[in-house]
Amino acid sequence: MPQPYVLLSAAVSLDGYLDDTGPERLLLSGPADFDRVDEVRAASDAILIGAGTLRTDNPRLLVNSPERRAARVAAGLPEYPLKVTVSASGDLDPKAQFWHTGGEKVVYTTDKGAKHLRTLGLPTGPAGVDVVSVGPDLEWPAVLDHLGDVRGVGRLMVEGGGRVHTQLLQQGLADELQLAVAPVFVGEAEAPRMFGTGAYPGGPTSRLRLVETRPVGDVVLIRYVPTVPGTGHAVSAADRHWLALACALAAECPPSGTAFSVGAVVVAADGTELARGHSREAGDPVAHAEEAALAKLDPTDPRLASATVYSSLEPCARRASRPAPCARLILDAGVRRVVTAWREPDTFVPDATARNAVLAEEGAVVVVVPEYEARAKEPNRHLVG
Ligand SMILES: NC(=O)c1ccc[n+]([C@@H]2O[C@H](COP(=O)([O-])OP(=O)(O)OC[C@H]3O[C@@H](n4cnc5c(N)ncnc54)[C@H](OP(=O)(O)O)[C@@H]3O)[C@@H](O)[C@H]2O)c1
């Protein structure tokens, strides 16, 4: 299983805080938004909080609506999503409501934390607690790999707190941000903020993409997705979003019985979309997607040197219809990172993948994200079966 889709969810004050410094949890949302959150929980395979939130808020983290729980069961899912927490220290209260309500739980921890947690007498059995050590340090990729591979989690809702949100966003691992902005000021410098200090992908000039705003009672739900490409072979959440867009563009190509339908997007290092294209664009029967996208750009654009090309199908390294194949166009444009969903099959060119090694041979990083292969193939089914 690939890593789960990671959705960061929080209610935040107008001045950017998650809570105040008082002993009681500050309720930032109203009833309508709590119900919306319940709906998002019900649509998730797992819900994660950091140990800080577990200690401060003592949440139960349940799907509260009986109808939503019944719908999960009718769909063959467990009544409650898996509950997940992360703690390096293992210093958690065994009486916390988290352990004693809902269905299965898992705590990701360090070797040292696991030793401590195993002495606490946490619940066992079908709704018990699985203590998973990911090694001497708690690294997020290991947690997400385990959730995907071992727990089969496809959709992970992260409900804070600030440290967890900050790490996942800064490490390029968050697929979506859902903020409920409440008409409240906290005004305390020591209160926990939604996002902390440190380096965020692309720096302060890069922008997330807004996908939705919606009033929910007196709060406003804002949904953003990340845009900044990963670096090298590391796949960021934004890489997956751009590759999904390339696959969607492939579906817009005029059909052909003799050529693939492909979509491509060129994205700058700060997450700005520079150009997009698709096969047979603008009535050109032999246009390739990467070619169509690159043709829209000034070849002297300095952003190309650090840009990423997303292509639903591996860029061609040989073609009869034009003097230069797309791999050559990409290299000549100065682009050195290509993310693709599908290695070229031998449908039109024998041994296509071996021949396509040209990008890597000339110093470009080629990242294949196979979880999108089915989407890339979909508009080409008549060619590849
Ligand atoms: N408004 C909202 O929607 C909302 C939602 C959730 C939480 N909150 C608020 O957020 C506050 C808590 O946030 P927080 O930032 O203090 O805590 P947090 O993010 O919930 O948890 C931080 C803790 O998680 C563990 N952890 C996280 N990442 C780790 C890593 N990479 N390696 C090792 N351990 C890691 C550590 O536990 P150990 O210390 O055990 O090692 C760390 O102390 C509370 O005030 C809560 O009310 C608000």
Automatic annotation (TrEMBL):
Read off the InterPro entries from this record: CMP_dCMP_dom, Cytidine_deaminase-like, DHFR-like_dom_sf, RibDG_C, Riboflavin_Biosynth_HTPR
Residues that span the membrane, as ranges: none
The job of this chain, per UniProt, is described as:
Converts 2,5-diamino-6-(ribosylamino)-4(3h)-pyrimidinone 5'-phosphate into 5-amino-6-(ribosylamino)-2,4(1h,3h)-pyrimidinedione 5'-phosphate.
- EC class, as a word, reads hydrolase
Protein name as annotated: Riboflavin biosynthesis protein RibD
Q: Which family does it belong to?
A: In the C-terminal section; belongs to the HTP reductase family. In the N-terminal section; belongs to the cytidine and deoxycytidylate deaminase family.
Q: In which pathway does it act?
A: Cofactor biosynthesis; riboflavin biosynthesis; 5-amino-6-(D-ribitylamino)uracil from GTP: step 2/4
The source organism is Streptomyces neyagawaensis
EC number(s) from the headed UniProt entry: 3.5.4.26
Keywords for this entry?
NADP, Oxidoreductase
Give me the reactions it catalyses: 2,5-diamino-6-hydroxy-4-(5-phosphoribosylamino)-pyrimidine + H2O + H(+) = 5-amino-6-(5-phospho-D-ribosylamino)uracil + NH4(+); 5-amino-6-(5-phospho-D-ribitylamino)uracil + NADP(+) = 5-amino-6-(5-phospho-D-ribosylamino)uracil + NADPH + H(+)
What range(s) does the CMP/dCMP-type deaminase domain occupy? 237-356
